[in-house]
């Protein structure tokens, strides 16, 4: 038989969780065989076969009593670990990525690998909306753009208003004309006028499309992909610097194209 192909070696590594764990352990530094056994829990016979196969592929070499990765082994592990991260991210984003405007994102979607993602689950179809409300309405400083009015009944709006008035929250909100129209009855406009009068709210009207709700909440980036009806399908929270920078930049762009609203601009 000839030398294994690259795909053969990828398959060889991927089809055994024990091999992955041994390579991961050695990637953090040289180990004796007893140390690898203790840290991975792989049986001694299996471990012996794995280390031998790694040596045959020149991924590992033995120096005295220790095993260490070769430069080739280090390269294999780094690239394989990146692949694992990519696949894990793809799996976690599978239910929401179809609603993300990936062609407009100013960051690699893999930057969301460590994000907290809340989605609907069987028996709790509103879980992501409750999380979105929690992170936005309990923060100290909020910047956001939203194409639709916040979900909920009038009582929910009243509760949010009262909570805001009791707080020191600072808000910059960029909303669509449609969202303002939903809130256009006299009582709700009165509440909004009162909030603007606190000088803790900067309100802007934006007339263009908003494919995904964006927010910076106490410095954390929040993305809420929207379905065809403008309803959030998930809540994504990320502290990744690239994601936060992109969200901040997009919020700046929306604000520059929006019209600031004063209390006098609101209908009576």
From TrEMBL:
InterPro entries: FilR1_middle_dom, HVO_A0261-like_N, WH-like_DNA-bd_sf, WH_DNA-bd_sf. It holds the Pfam family HVO_A0261_N. This is ArsR family transcriptional regulator. Residues 8-92 form the HVO-A0261-like N-terminal domain. Residues 129-257 form the Methanogenesis regulatory protein FilR1 middle domain.
């Amino acid at each position: 038989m000839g030398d294994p192909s690259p795909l053969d070696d990828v398959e060889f590594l991927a089809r055994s969780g024990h091999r992955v764990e041994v390579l991961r352990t050695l990637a953090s530094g040289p180990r004796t065989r007893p140390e690898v056994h203790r840290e991975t829990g792989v049986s001694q016979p299996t471990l012996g076969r794995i280390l031998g196969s790694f040596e045959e592929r020149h991924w590992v070499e033995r120096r005295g009593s220790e095993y260490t990765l070769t430069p080739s082994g280090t390269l294999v592990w780094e690239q394989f670990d990146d692949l694992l991260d990519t696949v894990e991210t793809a799996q976690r984003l599978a239910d929401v990525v179809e609603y993300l405007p990936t062609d407009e994102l100013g960051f690699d979607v893999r930057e969301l690998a460590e994000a907290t993602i809340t989605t609907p689950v069987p028996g709790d179809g509103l879980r992501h909306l409750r999380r979105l409300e929690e992170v936005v309405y309990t923060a100290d400083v909020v910047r956001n753009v939203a194409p639709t009015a916040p979900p909920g009944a009038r009582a929910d709006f009243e509760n949010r208003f009262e909570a805001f008035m009791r707080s020191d929250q600072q808000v910059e909100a960029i909303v669509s004309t449609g969202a303002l129209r939903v809130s256009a009855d006299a009582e709700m406009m009165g509440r909004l006028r009162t909030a603007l009068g606190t000088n803790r709210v900067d309100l802007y009207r934006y007339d263009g499309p908003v494919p995904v709700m964006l927010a910076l909440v106490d410095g954390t980036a929040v993305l809420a992909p929207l379905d065809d009806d403008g309803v959030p399908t998930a809540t994504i929270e990320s502290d990744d610097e690239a994601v936060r920078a992109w969200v901040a930049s997009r919020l700046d762009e929306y604000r520059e194209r929006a019209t600031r609203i004063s209390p006098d601009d609101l209908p009576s």
